[in-house]
Write a structure and sequence with these properties.
This protein is an alpha+beta fold and about 240 residues long. It contains 7 helices and 12 strands. The strands form 2 sheets. Strands 11-5-10-9-8-7-6-12 form an 8-stranded mixed sheet, with helices on both faces. Strands 1-2-4-3 form a 4-stranded mixed sheet, covered by helices on one side. Helix 5 links the parallel strand 9 and strand 10. The longest helix has 15 residues. The chain is globular and about 50 Å long.
Length: about 240
């Protein structure tokens, strides 16, 4: 099959089918468009997400395979279990979305800045205000120490980024998300691409076709009420 990069129409929220994505770089599907809430929601419902370096053209991706985790299948090793039992951290939902995304966008140790540019921050903050984007926060002595954010689409949570200022902080945020999401009938967390860190948590790689079939079904099913009510949550 001949594959090519699609230039998006600035006036419409149409996307090509993910099967047209390039094999190299893996999953690159389209270029252009904007980061309006309507376009972003249209993309995520089709298994497509934006990613590009700052000051570069906007790129849209749907990789094959796809990194995913069913919340109840999260792997928690012995050392992490001990850490959780001994932790004195507070965990919350949507208490500090803006602070979480700003921390995710900050320069990392042994690395430069991230792909989360000011336009990306503005776009996901708008999705948060509309009730689509959410954050998990890890606090210690009222200081924000770790967290993650992403989009909720029915029984699917599309994870975008995470950060940590303490050992095991990002893992603790992921454990909190999985347990809380599972308690409210959440079924699948999209991690986009697997990496070494996510692999330690049991993230699987699904063929894109399998992921898209699950996405189409699960986004039409509701979570239990109260999943994203701001406030403290328990592990």
């Amino acid at each position: 099959m001949s594959r090519y990069l699609t230039q998006l129409d600035d006036e419409q929220y149409w996307f090509p089918t993910p099967s047209h994505a390039l094999e190299e770089p893996n999953g690159l599907l389209a270029i252009g468009g904007d980061l309006s809430p309507e376009r972003l929601l249209a993309a995520y419902h089709r298994g497509i997400f934006p990613w590009n370096e700052p000051h570069q053209p906007l790129l849209w991706w749907s990789p094959d395979p796809r990194g995913v985790i069913e919340p109840e299948q999260l792997h928690i090793g012995r050392s992490l279990q001990k850490f959780i039992r001994r932790t004195s951290f507070d965990i919350s939902i949507d208490r500090a979305f803006n602070e979480v995304i700003a921390a995710c966008a900050a320069p990392r140790r042994n690395a430069g800045g991230t792909w989360i540019s000011p336009p990306m921050i503005d776009a996901y903050q708008q999705l948060h205000r509309l009730g689509h984007a959410h954050s998990v926060e890890v606090w210690q002595d009222v200081q924000l120490q770790a967290g993650l954010y992403g989009l909720s689409l029915g029984r699917v949570f599309c994870g975008e980024s995470m950060f940590s200022r303490i050992d095991n902080g990002a893992k603790l945020a992921m454990v909190a998300l999985c347990r809380h999401f599972a308690r409210h009938n959440g079924a699948l967390i999209d991690c986009q691409m697997q990496n070494d860190f996510l692999a330690t948590l049991g993230i699987e790689q699904w063929p894109r076709r399998r992921f898209l079939a699950a996405l189409d079904q699960l986004t039409q099913q509701p979570l239990n009420a109260g999943c994203w009510q701001p406030g403290s949550i328990s592990l």
